[in-house]
Design goal:
The complex is a heterotrimer of chains A (about 270), B (about 230) and C (about 45).
Chain A: H1 19-25, H2 37-60, H3 74-100, H4 106-137, H5 146-165, H6 171-202, H7 219-270
Chain B: H1 3-21, H2 23-43, H3 46-77, H4 81-87, H5 92-121, H6 131-156, H7 162-173, H8 175-189, H9 200-225
Chain C: H1 2-33
Classes of the chains: A mainly alpha (about 270), B mainly alpha (about 230), C mainly alpha (about 45).
Chain lengths: ~270, ~230, ~45
């Protein structure tokens, strides 16, 4: 441990602070946290986009012919699951990059972990909001349909992934274990989806609930959905920047703790 | 020594340990049997039991799988045998294959007992024409279960909290096996008017699953247990 | 008017989850930042 924690190559997290500005603020006493001008820009943009989403989703967009007002849930439901899928894809890519790049940078590992955390939170939100929407349009909270069932299993799979990340051991051990698991999930999810789809298609029960009911998306509705996707993508970028940096500090603090404990032990032994 | 030969040796070693310790026969089989009995308490109707019997057989198999995997890796980690094998230069793929083969052998024995229990307790009957489908299903499903169990068992082995982590990782992963094997056995036993030909697409699913996790598992096992 | 409750509830729930997660992220960052010297923060 020579203090080299190979963070230098995490260029993917935008380090755009200009030196002059840092020099000005560094004299202020509070320690600098995970915020930079980049996160502030993205954060403000995300808040503005969220406000737009609420305005368009609840206000300006029209009611649907079949679904009536209930269609408004779509504008938060679709962006949250989009965010979750995006997060899990990033986890898989970052896991592969950790394993297969020669440098095996822990930056990729932390990106994979941070992304999975965000994904799990938003799958949970999607499932709950989806249940509310289902109650409105189908009359039931849950339906054993292929997409719902796969999403539920997706949630549990990544909860397991996060549990494995917390198993302990060195950062390298954690990184390799979770990277392999992140790739196994890529193998697992399509198999789960395939089996569940086969299951539901062969067991067609008479559904009174068939309200897949083509939503006629007019211009304003599509735009509202678009605003939602933009808002949540910005949110994802903002969360990732903060979380990856916080995780880098977590690792550093852990290393420090270990070094301090070793030093104390040595001092004890020497006395 | 080739990897296959090493795998075979490891499998025989595991089975010999189980035969001598009798943990499987004295604890796991009775556990699976009790599960079949308490399902009857929960469902409380002969008609329902007859309808869901194939699913209950596989549910009992899944629960027993978790116990068997814990057991399979407990004998390795108790005295650091897994690390010792790695240090001795044993190929991780051979370890994976060997442990999976031993696990599969135990599972097949257990599944046959559970099927027999279903015939007796839940009023199932096995027609001669469905034996081929039944055997293929058992083999394909068992290979998939053994591969997943060995993979996640190796991952969780040696950590605190492995007893709770293993089911969390394993059950979502083996969901396709539960779905596919249950439908195929329903077809084989003629549950709810199913016919034998309904079962074959599910055997296809089970085979793909077993191959995917067999190959994926043997590749991933080394990095997972190498510390 | 039952619909309104579900619709507003969905929005409230989503935004509340976003706010809570963002707040936790920021707070954990602040807490950790106190224990790490600024020269180790690669993003500064």
């Amino acid at each position: 441990m020579n203090g080299d924690h190979d963070d230098d190559d995490t260029g993917n997290t935008m380090t755009t602070t200009d030196p002059a500005q840092t020099a000005d603020t560094v004299s202020i006493t509070a320690p600098r946290s995970t915020g930079t001008s980049a996160t502030r820009v993205v954060g403000v943009a995300a808040i503005v986009a969220m406000a737009w989403l609420v305005a368009f989703g609840l206000g300006f967009s029209p009611a649907d012919r079949d679904q009536e007002e209930a269609v408004r849930i779509l504008y938060v439901h679709v962006p949250t699951i989009w965010l979750a899928y995006l997060a899990f894809v990033v986890t898989a890519i970052a896991s592969a990059l950790y394993l297969f790049t020669s440098k095996q940078s822990l930056g990729w590992d932390r990106a994979a972990g941070a992304s999975a955390e965000i994904g799990v939170v938003f799958v949970a939100v999607t499932l709950v909001v989806g249940a509310l929407w289902g109650r409105l349009t189908w009359g039931v909270f849950w339906q054993w349909d292929a997409r719902l069932t796969t999403t539920a299993l997706l949630f549990v799979t990544y909860v397991g992934y996060l549990a494995v990340r917390r198993l302990g051991g060195s950062h390298r051990q954690r990184a390799r274990r979770s990277a392999v698991l992140g790739l196994i999930a890529v193998l697992e999810i399509p198999l789960v989806h395939w089996s569940v789809r086969l299951w539901r298609s062969l067991h067609q029960e008479a559904t009174v609930l068939d309200t897949d009911g083509d939503i006629d998306m007019d211009g304003l509705m599509l735009f509202s959905l678009f605003v939602g996707v933009i808002a949540f993508t910005l949110l994802y970028a903002w969360l990732m920047m903060h979380r990856v940096r916080a995780m880098a500090m977590e690792d550093l603090v852990e290393d420090r703790g270990l070094d301090a404990a070793l030093a104390a032990r040595r001092a004890e032994g020497g006395a | 020594m080739s990897a296959w030969r090493v795998a075979w040796l490891i499998a025989r070693k595991d089975l010999r340990v189980e035969r001598r310790s009798r943990v499987v026969t004295n604890q796991v089989v009775p556990f699976a049997g009790v599960t079949m009995v308490i399902f009857a308490f929960a469902l409380d109707s002969d008609a329902v039991l007859q309808r869901v019997a194939p699913g209950l057989v596989w549910l009992a198999t899944m629960f027993s799988l978790l116990v068997l995997v814990q057991r399979s890796f407990a004998i390795e980690t108790d005295d650091g045998a897994l690390d010792a094998m790695r240090v001795a230069g044993v190929d991780a793929r051979a370890i994976f294959l060997g442990k999976a083969i031993a696990l599969a052998a135990e599972l097949v024995a257990l599944e046959l007992i559970l099927l027999f229990a279903a015939v007796i307790l839940y009023g199932q009957s096995i027609a001669a024409g469905s034996v081929v489908l039944l055997v293929t299903t058992l083999v394909a499903a068992t290979c998939g279960l053994a591969a997943v169990g060995t993979l996640y068992g190796g991952l969780a082995a040696g950590f605190r909290g492995r007893e709770t982590l293993l089911p969390l990782l394993t059950l979502p992963a083996v969901a396709p096996v539960l779905i596919g094997a249950t439908r195929a056995v329903e077809a084989a036993l003629g549950t709810a008017g199913a016919v034998v030909s309904d079962g074959w697409p599910w055997v296809g699913l089970l085979t793909v699953f077993a191959v995917a996790f067999g190959v994926g598992g043997s590749l991933a096992f080394g990095p997972l247990i190498d510390e | 008017m039952e619909d309104a409750g579900f619709i507003l509830g969905s929005y409230a729930l989503t935004l509340a989850a976003v706010a809570m997660f963002a707040w936790r992220t920021i707070r954990s960052g602040r807490r950790l930042a106190e224990q790490v010297p600024d020269e180790d923060k690669y993003w500064l």
